[in-house]
């Protein structure tokens, strides 16, 4: 590596190479910790809002300190990639209780490998320019506060729902990081543009956003349907509606998402697979374990496994309109081999029975 390297010129070229690789934007942040981020993380952990995500507590402040991940790290290069697919209308899907709602980011193939491969190509392009250097690529695959570093890199600002926001693309994008031992000049952060808006707080179905920039993950539907391994709390089940994997409500209601419209992805890997953007709950509930494994191979949904897939759908069926098809689907799984599935099916059937009793009473 030449000591006379023009680091500002290299930073400009890195951003151009990133755009040529398909990233919507690239920014640069110093690989130093932020007191604000560290205090916020510690307070969140001390409140127990991470729930069963023990890895959050296990890694602790390492998330704010890239040099503990990559010795010698000086800079974090961050890139964002739009994921919103050309799919059936999200709001219409949420309004149809017989359909399943899956977070838009999970309708296609898993993003981790694609982003890491893309970042590795960027790393190789840099190496071709300056020679060997220390670097590692991450995409939601290491203990790193990527939202904090992305906001410090000028890629957007942290919305009150804690997601990174931009004025022209809302928050419908993935983030990836290249942690490097290069003294690149950082980009200035953007100013925030949430103002007095509280749409994400008031629209969260389970009131998981307990205050601006504060989320109790234990109430978040994404946590409940993806991270939680056991039984979904009884009081939260009716609030989940037909959301069987993740939740987009805090994005869908955000003015920066609605007013500009999400930028549709150009990545074929993120295109909708198996009609998941308009699938009926009873059809998905009928998938055997082998069908689930075959159809969800390469999908982010694969990680929750067939048992939790059925658990989530059982809750959604309990919230669905009381129809012969819904009741028959639940009845057929009353004796499922999984105790977890049986419990949620029993709850769903009891919910429909209660509705029928009330209807008769009227």
UniProtKB/TrEMBL annotation:
Pathways involved: tRNA modification; tRNA-queuosine biosynthesis
Matches recorded under InterPro entries: 4Fe4S_Fe-S-bd, 4Fe4S_Fe_S_CS, QueG, QueG_DUF1730
Enzyme type, top EC level: oxidoreductase
A GO CC annotation given for this chain: cytoplasm
Superkingdom of origin organism: Bacteria
Catalysis performed (reactions): epoxyqueuosine(34) in tRNA + AH2 = queuosine(34) in tRNA + A + H2O
Binding site for cob(II)alamin: 63, 140, 164, 175, 222, 247-248
Cofactor: binding details: Binds 2 [4Fe-4S] clusters per monomer.
Residues bound to tRNA: 229
Active site: 140
Chief location: cytoplasm
Gene Ontology molecular function: any one: metal ion binding
EC number: 1.17.99.6
GO biological process: tRNA queuosine(34) biosynthetic process
Cofactor dependence: cob(II)alamin; [4Fe-4S] cluster
Residues involved in [4Fe-4S] cluster 1 binding: 194, 197, 200, 254
Pfam families: Fer4_16, QueG_DUF1730
Protein location: Cytoplasm
Alphabetically ordered keywords of this record: 4Fe-4S, Cobalamin, Cobalt, Cytoplasm, Iron, Iron-sulfur, Metal-binding, Oxidoreductase, Queuosine biosynthesis, tRNA processing
Subunit structure: Monomer.
Family label: Belongs to the QueG family.
Function: Catalyzes the conversion of epoxyqueuosine (oQ) to queuosine (Q), which is a hypermodified base found in the wobble positions of tRNA(Asp), tRNA(Asn), tRNA(His) and tRNA(Tyr).
Entry protein name: Epoxyqueuosine reductase
Higher taxonomy: Bacteria, Pseudomonadati, Pseudomonadota, Betaproteobacteria, Nitrosomonadales
């Amino acid at each position: 590596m030449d000591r006379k390297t023009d680091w500002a010129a290299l930073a400009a070229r890195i951003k151009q190479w990133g755009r040529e690789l398909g990233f919507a934007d690239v920014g640069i942040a110093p690989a130093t910790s932020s007191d604000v981020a560290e205090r916020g993380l510690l307070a969140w952990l001390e409140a127990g809002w991470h729930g069963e995500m023990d890895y959050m507590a296990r890694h602790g402040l390492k998330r704010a300190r890239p040099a503990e991940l990559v010795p010698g790290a000086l800079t974090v290069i961050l890139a964002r990639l739009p994921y919103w697919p050309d799919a059936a209308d999200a709001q219409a899907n949420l309004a149809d209780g017989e359909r399943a709602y899956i977070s838009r980011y999970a309708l296609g193939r898993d993003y981790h490998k694609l982003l890491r491969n893309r970042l590795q190509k960027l790393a190789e392009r840099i190496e071709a320019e300056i020679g060997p250097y220390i670097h590692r690529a991450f995409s939601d695959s290491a203990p790193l506060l990527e939202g904090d570093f992305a906001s410090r890199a000028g890629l957007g600002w942290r919305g009150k729902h804690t997601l990174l926001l931009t004025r022209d693309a809302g928050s419908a994008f993935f983030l990836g990081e290249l942690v490097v031992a290069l003294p690149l000049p950082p980009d200035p952060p953007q100013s925030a543009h949430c103002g007095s808006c509280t749409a994400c707080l008031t629209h969260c179905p389970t009131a998981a956003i307990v205050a601006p920039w504060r989320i109790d993950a234990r109430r978040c539907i994404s946590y409940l349907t993806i991270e939680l391994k056991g039984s979904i709390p009884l009081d939260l089940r009716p609030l989940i509606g037909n959301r069987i994997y993740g939740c987009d409500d805090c994005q869908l209601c955000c003015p920066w998402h609605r007013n500009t419209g999400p930028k549709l992805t150009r990545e074929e890997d993120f295109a909708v697979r198996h009609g998941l953007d308009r699938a009926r709950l009873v059809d998905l509930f009928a998938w055997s374990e082998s069908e689930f494994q075959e159809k969800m191979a390469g999908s982010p949904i694969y990680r929750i496994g067939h048992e939790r897939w059925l658990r989530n759908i059982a809750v959604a069926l309990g919230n669905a309109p009381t129809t012969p098809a819904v009741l028959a689907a639940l009845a057929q799984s009353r004796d499922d081999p999984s105790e977890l599935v049986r419990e949620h099916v029993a709850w769903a059937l009891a919910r429909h029975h209660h509705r029928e009793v009330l209807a008769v009473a009227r």
